[in-house]
User: Fold this.
Amino acid sequence: MKLADLPQAELEERLRGAGLRLRTGPVVSEIRSAMPPLAEGLALLYGEYPVEDRDGFADFHVRIAPPANLRRWWRPQVQFQFDGAPPFHPLPADQAFPIFEWGLNWCVSAHCHHYLVLHAAVVEKQGGAMLLPAPPGSGKSTLCAGLVSRGWRLLSDELALIDPASGDIAPLARPVSLKNASIEVIRRFAPEARLSPVVHDTLKGSVAHMQASADSVRRAAEPARPRWVVLPRYEAGAKAALAPLPRGRAFMQLADSAFNYDLHGAEGFRVLADLVEGCRCYEFTYADLDDAVRIFDALAEGA
Amino acid sequence: MNLPLLAALRDPAAIAGWDIPRLELLVRQARRANLLSRLALQVELDRLPEAPRRHFGGALVLARAQEEAIRREVAQVSEALRSVATTAVLLKGAGYLFAGLPPAPGRLFSDVDILVPREALPQVEAALMLRGWATTHHDPYDQRYYRKWMHELPPMQHITRQSVLDVHHTILPLTGRLHPDPDKLMRAARPLAGHPGLRVLAPVDMVLHSATHLFFNEEFSNGLRDLADLDSLLRHFGASAGFWRELPERARELELERPLFYALRYTRALLDTPGELHGLREPPAGLRRLMDGLFLRVLQPDHPTAGDWLSPLARRTLYLRAHWLRMPAALLAYHLAVKAWRRPEENPALQR
Assistant:
């Protein structure tokens, strides 16, 4: 069953009561919350995702709720609880949906050590996955959102889950997190894209989440073979340019962006070395998303 | 109460036959108790369904990395202390690991703990500082708290590796009610083959220290993990001749009968650990009932499915008890007042 098949009242009842079991790629999360923005956000962006039964296995049990303090009326807050305990301090209550997204990312990066987990966006075309590792502010999520709204399949905008045994990347296909100016950029670039309401003054500035394409969600059980590593850099006014990146530097960039490279030891080195070995690696400077899509489509066609 | 974790610790082989909801609850409780990786080595993982198996596998990745890190770290400490004419005793996790004892496989570690003679502390600290370890608590009150009243230096952290090292000179605070003689522990400590400057506690002392650490502690997030350590140690050493006779005698000599009593009582109650209580002075019945009410609660995983409405109160009571045992009343009042005055720390996560 898809989440969209649940009537809104039933969705809210599950969230308030026994919990909603939502599948995102390999991960099933049991979600509870009585906060309206969460139910609204889920209904808006997660309609195509499978809802799982109670007799299956849920990986993470999370709750989005006001913390047990006296701030119910005066500047109310929201807390992300993982199995009854909050891994982070509370945030202002209007950030209920963003804290849910960030919290689920944390669940994966802090526990899924059966994958090598990198902080990178991953998109796929023609069977090849493109890894976009980059520090915040480099335009990684914007580029990812742009490509996904032009037919690339989304695997993740934040977490590349590399299976050490096969070297393939498992998709999470959750909504793409957009920050500050990139929200407007994507609204103009893809007017048909569905975005959650903008939440202002978060730790990352203003944020909104863009729905993953239906195709990405439908194919979320389908891993992809890494084919390109692209280090993006947004530069206002720059002409789009794709320059080869030495494999050694690509390797260091990936290792540096990993959440758990240190835990995988020699195996982690082997997995990343094999990955870089099998990829073409580039540095990409860009200002305009249309240029970017044109260049990457050509890359995918040539592959 | 539904406690698959205790059932799994008592009989790990049985897990393979469990249904998915029970396995799910086990993963949740074991993850919270830091015991998932220990169980992962005691279960036939191939017989588990894929979804729970992945969590055991992931926990093993973490445990193996920590074991390797502890091995490297201890080698660095040993190297740093070569210039100091003293021996260092590896305590707790690092001790179990280097002595090749059964609590070690799959265990999660937080830091390295060593015990050195108090008179060697200045040279030990200086030698460690030369190799990159620096003190962590820069507040003058904290420095005084540790150096004057506690049983250890303020935790030291390596400036590049970020690893934490606790340097102890005895096993309970100087201001506490009990004063086990650290010289006796050091004298009985056993050499470690291949590691000339390092030792581990003698078997009975290792059990007594593990018990003391657990039952005098102020928080129990690793309570069940530590109880499982004790279970493994007691089963392992308990098989050798003389252990059960020597244990209560040594406890009396070191003033540690009470923590030993609790260790034997609660390993038996929760993990079916075999043991003999002969010759051990027991606490009065009223106190025993009170402590049962507290310890049987806090030694469960700190998970919503493994407690009752009294669990939070039990945790708070034992927090106060630990402080009460740590220092005299006037000093305690002063210390708690200073701590209460402090500002809370910054948000730890959500950087990316």
Q: What stands out?
A: Residues 83 and 246 of chain B are 36 Å apart (CA to CA). The interface with chain A takes residues 20-21, 23-24, 28, 31-32, 49, 51-52, 54-55, 57-59, 61-62, 64-65, 68, 302-304, 347-350, 352 of chain B (CB under 8 Å).
